[in-house]
Amino acid sequence: MGNAATLQPTYREPDRAPRGSALLSDLVIRHPDVDELEIVASLTVDAYAEYAAHMSPDAWSAFAHDIANVAGRMSDGEVLVAERAGDLVGSLTRYPNWRGAQEGSSSLRMLAVPPHERGQGVGRALMLRAIELSRAEGKDRVVMTVPPEMTTARDLVTSLGFERESSLDHTPAPGVHAQGYELRL
């Protein structure tokens, strides 16, 4: 990981647009280069910043620090980025064997798409690539948790066939409650 050339084949969204969006034939899903990790960190914190109001300042500070640790997530996860016209427009971390997922499961975390990029299929393309990778590894399911305030992410997850799984609910940071979803493959 950490090298754009390590993810093969490069996923390209088909030449059809999700409802209400532009064509995404120019969107590439890949691993970030090492020199892009700070950009991914900033993109992630910026994408989640609107939810800071739901937390105490101390909780937001700790949460922002955690989600900005892209290099740390790469030790047991796989970071994917969405690139359009040379700009990073989204990211997602996939844990093929993460401690929170059961045997045969892959876990997705930190789906980050800045508000101005939402509704254009970026998150969907990242999710579809992560599901594709999990299926290719023979996983039985993909799990993800989403705070209730993140309605766009929740709507995306359910539109992809994920179903609510309350046994995955948890509190990743003080004041942050996440609801679990699973997709059986």
Automatic annotation (TrEMBL):
Residues 164-185 are annotated as: Disordered. The keyword Cytoplasm does not apply. GO terms for molecular function: acyltransferase activity, transferring groups other than amino-acyl groups. InterPro entries: Acyl_CoA_acyltransferase, Bact_Acetyltransf, GNAT_dom. Keywords: Acyltransferase, Transferase. Residues 27-185 form the N-acetyltransferase domain. Gene3D superfamilies: 3.40.630.30. PANTHER family: AMINOALKYLPHOSPHONATE N-ACETYLTRANSFERASE-RELATED-RELATED. This is N-acetyltransferase. It comes from Egibacter rhizosphaerae. The lineage of its organism: Bacteria, Bacillati, Actinomycetota, Nitriliruptoria, Egibacterales.
